[in-house]
Backbone:
């Protein structure tokens, strides 16, 4: 079965040679999606590309009365930092295509590293600290060294799923550096404390990157309502498409 086609529509040229690409597609707990949104709002970034596919749910994100694609690429040429961000709740059948698209974009842009993140749900009675610990897995020894040199300890055993898993496996196959950050998350809601921890870890890996964590946590309740509304709208759109498509 062929993978669904995914198109990256370039809006402007950007020099990313030697840079870092961040995977902001939502995973469990939305920690990576929250972290990339925080970086985009804190840093001076530009919208450089749109990501679209006929397999994506029919959804337009409206902000300030204007539409935008639900998957986009932002970049800072100065910091050599690019971020794939999305509000989409993707079907697992699309994970491999999305991961391959990110890898191809990173390679074609002469970037040196992809950083992703994966949420690991807390156990039923496990305490949830205000500042959860972040650990790292690398696709290559060099990728793991980059994480540990930044002060992020390695995790030796376990498993990763979803887009981060495919990025790791393909990175290992292609001998390309991928770091996946692991953090414990609340399983049934956007976890802003985990998102803040991932943002701080990203800032250690990407020189010059920063996130206004205090503002992120202050705005968490309002952002959670927006994320829930987007998810609800997406669910209604999918049901409508199934009924009338």
Residues:
């Amino acid at each position: 079965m062929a993978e669904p086609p995914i198109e990256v529509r370039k809006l402007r040229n950007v020099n990313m040679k030697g840079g870092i690409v961040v995977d902001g597609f939502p995973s469990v707990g939305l920690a990576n999606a929250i972290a990339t949104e925080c970086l985009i709002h804190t840093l001076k970034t530009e919208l450089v590309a749109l990501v679209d596919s006929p397999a994506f749910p029919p959804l337009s994100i409206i902000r300030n009365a204007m539409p935008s694609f639900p998957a986009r690429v932002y970049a800072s040429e100065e910091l050599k930092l690019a971020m794939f961000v999305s509000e989409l709740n993707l079907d697992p059948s699309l994970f491999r295509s999305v991961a391959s698209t990110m890898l191809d974009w990173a390679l074609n842009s002469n970037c040196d590293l992809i950083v992703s993140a994966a949420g690991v749900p807390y156990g039923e009675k496990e305490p949830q600290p205000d500042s959860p610990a972040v650990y790292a897995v690398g696709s290559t020894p060099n990728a793991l060294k980059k994480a540990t040199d930044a002060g992020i300890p390695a995790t030796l055993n376990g498993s990763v799923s979803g887009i981060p898993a495919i990025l790791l496996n393909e990175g290992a196959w292609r001998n390309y550096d991928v770091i996946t950050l692991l953090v414990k998350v609340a399983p049934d809601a956007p976890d802003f404390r985990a998102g803040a921890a991932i943002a701080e870890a990203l800032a250690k890996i990407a020189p010059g990157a920063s996130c206004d964590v205090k503002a992120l946590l202050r705005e968490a309740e309002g952002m959670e309502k927006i994320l829930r509304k987007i998810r609800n709208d997406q669910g209604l759109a999918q049901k409508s498409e199934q009924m009338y498509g």
In short: The chain has one domain: 7-244. The first strand starts at residue 7 and ends at 10. The longest helix spans residues 220-244. The chain is about 40% helix and 25% strand.
